[in-house]
Amino acid sequence: MKTLGRSPIRAMFWLATVGAAFLVAASLLAKPATAGKPGPTTEQAQKLTASAIQLGRVEPPEDLLIPEDTRVSVYENVVLELTKTKKFQHIYRSGDRAAADVPDLIILTMIPEAFKAGSQKKREVTTVAGATSIKVKVQFTSREGKVLLEKDVEGKVRFYGENLRATYDLAKKVAALVNQSF
Amino acid sequence: MKSRGVQIFPGFSSTRNEIVRHSLLLGGLLVLGVGLVLAATAAPSFSRQSATPQDPPSSMIPDVKCIIGLEDIKPGAKGTLASLPTGLEFTTGKKKAEIAISSIQDVFTGQDTKQDVGGMSGTLVKAAIPYGGGRVVSLFTHSVDVLTVEYVDSGGGFHGTIFVLPSSKAEAFKNQLVALGAKVSKHVDPLGPKEQKP
User: Is A38 in a helix, a strand, or coil?
Assistant: First the structure.
């Protein structure tokens, strides 16, 4: 048997090294092409811009009865969560006179569509029943009344937590929508 | 007879006298002790009764939880709620928030139930009890009142704040605010049963 010389081993080593480097380079190049490209282009096209937002009062339709504490909790939680997004220089409350002078103001309206009053006791004892949920239509409109974005958002509390936690969940989702859209 | 008895059983007589004296002393101490105990237990109730006519029962309500909606007050803070001639005041620790009577747009009251073992620590305890024992703990609840106040700030911005009060305190407090001049509209209770209320 004839043993291999040094040169073929070296050639094989270089071949493996070059191949590995090629694979690494190809994977690095492929990453932004697959994950990044389609995302930002479509998102950037839909992104809204505004320096200020005004939150309208949560007014349910006449046939939908929602407790006042739930309505107020939705409103206040959304104000808090909008502040946390840091997307706007000013967040105006409903009726704020200072909002009248803002040129690029966006108005956020939440129209309740469904409400299910749950029970914390039922939830925690049965773990399957007693969920509290509130579904609202979230509308972003311009000062002129043109609807810029509209989406249904639902807040829920399914297991642990007080019933008003559904409003906190809803506010978190509204803030996520703001983060996506602005 | 007395001298005779003393003469015949001098030791016995002195012992008997001592026993009588001791028993009288013990009896006196017992009566004093019972009196002190009764006085101690009765004193707070008397003081409470005497304090009641001076202060209206719900002008200052301790152990109130502010769920959300007051400027500079952390959501979920516990403190004292008071109705002053100028408005409503919530005090927690060193922080204080006030809502002027003129700015109040509406006041709502409701009822809810609260878990006896609640909060983050309570939830962890319930989750830690093996064999679903935490569910049994969840059965223990007590009723509370919910007070919702809608008001506007100096710029006209709408605010709402929610307080959780001890049971049967909210209606009286609302009446006090109304008496002071707070605006209130007619309400329809959207939910009947207490437990259904979120």
Answer: helix
